[in-house]
Amino acid sequence: MSRSVPWFLVALCFALGVASRSISDSFPVFVPALQQAFTASRSAVTVVYSFALLVGGTAAPIAGWIVDRFGLRALTVTGMSAAAIATFSAFHATELWQLYLGLGVVMGFGSASLSGVLSSSVLGRWFPSHRLGVALAVAWSASGVGAIIILPLAERIIVTSGWREAYFVFSCISAAFIPVLLFLPWRRIAGGAPGLARHHGSAAGGMTVGEAVRDWPFWALTFSFGFTSLGIFALAPQAMVYLLERGIEGAYAARALAVAGFLTPLGMVGFSWLSDRGGRKLAAILAYASSIVGVGMLALVRGPQDDLWLWLYVLLFGGSMGSRGPMISTLATLRYRGPNFGRIYGLISMGMGTGGFLGAWIGGLLHDLTGGYGVVMIFSACSLALAATSLGAEAGARERLSR
Questions:
Q1: How crowded is residue 403: how many other Cβ atoms within 10 Å of its Cβ?
Q2: DSSP class of 317
Q3: Which of 16, 173, 209, 364 measures 20 to 30 Å from 145, CA to CA?
Q4: Closest alpha carbon to 108 in 349, 361, 348
Q5: pLDDT digits (tens, 9 = 90+) for 338-356
């Protein structure tokens, strides 16, 4: 077996994530142009992205069923076709509801098919437990690293040619992957590395879905995904407005948040490296502690003079924001890999999508009810603390079993 095959598959998962999730996450750049084009309110336009987040999480069991029943080729081609169709439909959209359906529902399903379910199903067959976390972290970092390329590209095309042309270009990018995916040697890829393939190929090699949902770790991982997303998305969408209201100059605030976005994939890989080196519980606790302290640093930003607190928030919250996804995926893969893994992991991933949708809504609601951000920050920190308790307990149990 060529040693390059596992990392080629990491690169493939990364590229598919850029061509789907990163394109979906570029939506905020389109918001002003879409508001003007459809003469719609800000909330009416941004709910498109809320649908994408919700479907991206809740459709994961469907993606898992596809990979378990029909295989990796079917999952990747279906997911990339959904991304291409969604962006092409946006190019032709004349009514706002068409964006809800295309960029919300269809694009959300494409993201669900080409993110956690795919990377865990593929890489879990090729990497042993002590290297799996970093491999998954690199694949998960596609959304953050891809944004560095996709967001400026979207902005440039919108300014020079218009938002419709930007979505047409993105549709072409997604569609270009489909012929490649059709002819990849998926049977060989599904075979996995010697010693790991047997976990996937044998009907006796893993839990059934029914056994998994009666297994406490299943719920611990689901709750970890859900509470983490609640904590992150209750606060992150409002960070820019918060800084502006504190007198931070817009361009400076945007640069700070851009640095936070750049640190996110680095944190994914760094915390996963620590986790793989035998410190899964320690890595989880440090990641959540960084996020919670980061929330506190943001609360201390009261004006333009508070540069120290702002950049500590960027370092701590930005550097840890995406780190729990690969950790949870690694623990799920190690416990449940087998012929039913796709469906089991898909059900666990529903916590992430539901938590993200509810977190963004609850955060906005708490701000509207209180007229400030204090309660929002307390809610965010408490949600992250609950997630830390759940994930830390499961990570500790896994460490005891491996001794």
A1: 5
A2: I
A3: 364
A4: 349
A5: 888 888 988 998 888 888 8
